[in-house]
Specification:
The complex is a heterodimer.
Chain A (H helix, E strand, L loop, with lengths): L8 E5 L4 H13 L4 E4 L7 H6 L8 E4 L2 E4 L1 H11 L13 H27 L3 H26 L12 H7 L2 H11 L10 H11 L2 H6 L3 H18 L2
Parallel strand pairs in A: 1-2
Antiparallel strand pairs in A: 1-3, 3-4
Chain B lengths: L6 E5 L4 H13 L4 E4 L7 H6 L8 E4 L2 E4 L1 H11 L12 H27 L3 H26 L12 H7 L2 H9 L11 H11 L11 H24 L1
Helix pairs in contact in B: 1-3, 1-6, 4-5, 4-6, 7-9
Classes of the chains: A alpha+beta, B alpha+beta.
């Protein structure tokens, strides 16, 4: 039974994985120490393969030898285990607000993420154009969501960062990378002013500064992936 | 009964996602008003309550809409924590495992199943079937690991994962009659036994859809998909 003590805590991650960053940031919010293990996704470790045999992906949080997989499930786990004792909550307390937070996190993963990832992976101008439109539509929905949820405050979580801030904020390095690689602004101040303000504010928080890498690192990784894919196609 | 007029469920009789919510409400002993949505024309209420996805199920509690079956199930568990048994386990690690497998069912199993039944070509459907069967074997392994000899994913009594997978059983039985076998008694015997056990529960049986109606509906959907594919091929 989890008693809130840290115990043996390991996080298998990758330095530019936004999903791993969600977990690092959640642990940061809670002030919990852990051992970080950088995975080479081109040569996955035995530990990763045995801890996440179903998906073989990062992040995996291993707590007292027991693995937890899927970034949002891990964040909820962290929120539940390290609750109380004056530690900040990640999810809201009210069941309806929790449902709203989960809804938008699911939207971010199911609709928003594939759209902007699609921009990077598109091989034709036409395909890219389609994904850009999808991304812009998703951003508009998230802009509306922010205005409803934040209720005039600085973050989705209110005065301090919460579940949705982590769920969306983890992508900021990659938005920077897209700016550098395509001259594309995922969150445009002109069309999504609230989110643009939020992005800047989030980037200034302690957890973001501690965890999120510079966009240049994401660009370098994207190039490495491109080269790898090209080599597969030969 | 708790809940009363506060709860309204927008649904569609054949939707397995709606069945999940009905199962959860039934297991919790909650009463609610059910509103059947027309398959082709969506009501104002639905469009207003779920503007992003425009889909059922939507649970409306005290006028506030909650969307997405997994989110609705967790909401019911949290908002009505004092009523009936909990759906999700109490232990955070077990909850994380339940959430993991629920995500697996929707992201992997269902995607494969959809391809197996609605794939445009014979090849696509065969590939979908292969992946569905692989997913079912993975679930069989998960069930064997987490049940510890107990009858349900939730242990001695039904829980979140039982409801999650259970919502699909109507279509599992319907597709079997249409020639698509999802549960294999040789490869996934535990799941086959679990399915029988689950369906026969008092709180479950009355909620499950009429399989013969699903078969007819399934035939109609398959014919529609085939026609669309044929039309597509003609272009």
């Amino acid at each position: 039974m989890a008693d809130g003590k840290e115990g043996d805590l390991k996080l298998l991650g990758m330095h530019v994985s936004p999903f791993a960053h969600r977990v690092s940031m959640a642990l940061g919010v809670k002030g919990v120490r852990y051992e970080y293990i950088e995975e080479d996704l081109f040569h996955k470790s035995e530990l990763l393969l045995s801890s996440n045999p179903v998906h073989k992906k990062v992040p995996v949080l291993i707590h007292d030898g027991r693995p937890i997989c899927e970034s949002l499930a891990i964040v909820e786990y962290v929120d539940e285990v390290w609750s109380g004792d004056g530690r900040p909550a990640i999810l809201p307390a009210d069941p309806y607000e929790r449902a709203i937070a989960r809804f938008w996190a699911s939207y971010i993963d199911d609709k928003f993420f594939p759209a902007w990832l699609g921009i990077m992976r598109a091989t034709t101008e036409e395909a890219r154009g389609e994904k850009v439109k999808e991304t812009q539509d998703a951003v508009q929905n998230l802009e509306k969501a922010f205005s409803e949820i934040a209720g005039g405050k600085g973050f989705f979580g209110g005065d301090t960062v919460g579940y949705l801030d982590l769920a969306l904020g983890c992508f900021l390095p990659w938005f920077g990378a897209m700016r550098m690689m395509f001259g594309l602004e995922v969150i445009e101040a002109a069309t999504a002013p609230l989110l643009a303000g939020w992005a800047e504010r989030f980037g200034e928080t302690a957890v973001a500064k501690e965890v999120l890498p510079e966009p240049e690192k994401a660009v370098a990784y994207a190039k490495k992936l491109q080269a790898y894919r090209a080599s597969l196609n030969k | 009964m708790a809940g009363g007029n506060d709860l309204k469920l927008l649904g569609m009789w054949a939707s397995p996602f709606v069945v999940r919510v009905k199962l959860a409400l039934s297991l919790k002993g909650l009463s609610y008003e059910y509103v059947e949505e027309d398959f082709s024309t969506k009501s104002e209420l639905l469009l207003r309550s779920n503007p992003i996805h425009k889909k059922v199920p939507v649970l409306i509690h005290d006028g506030k809409p909650i969307c997405e079956s997994s989110i609705i199930l967790q909401y019911i568990d949290e908002a009505f924590a004092g009523t009936g048994a909990s759906l999700l386990p109490a232990d955070p690690y077990e909850r994380a495992i339940a959430r993991f497998w629920a995500a697996y069912i929707d992201d992997k199993m269902l995607a494969a199943w959809t391809q197996a039944t609605k794939g445009k070509t014979e090849e696509e459907r065969a590939e979908g079937m292969k992946q569905t069967l692989a997913a079912m074997e993975t679930l069989e392994g998960a069930f064997s690991d987490c049940r510890k000899g107990k009858p349900f994913f939730g242990g001695d009594s039904v829980g979140y994962l039982d409801v999650f997978l259970g919502g699909l059983l109507g279509w599992v039985r319907a597709y079997e009659k249409l020639g698509v076998k999802t549960f294999d008694p040789e490869k996934t015997p535990l799941l086959v036994a679990w399915a029988e056990r689950f369906w026969s529960l008092e709180a479950v049986e009355p909620v499950m859809p009429d399989v013969s109606k699903l078969v007819e509906f399934g035939k109609m959907l398959l014919a529609r998909a085939a026609a669309a594919a044929a039309a597509g091929e003609g272009n």
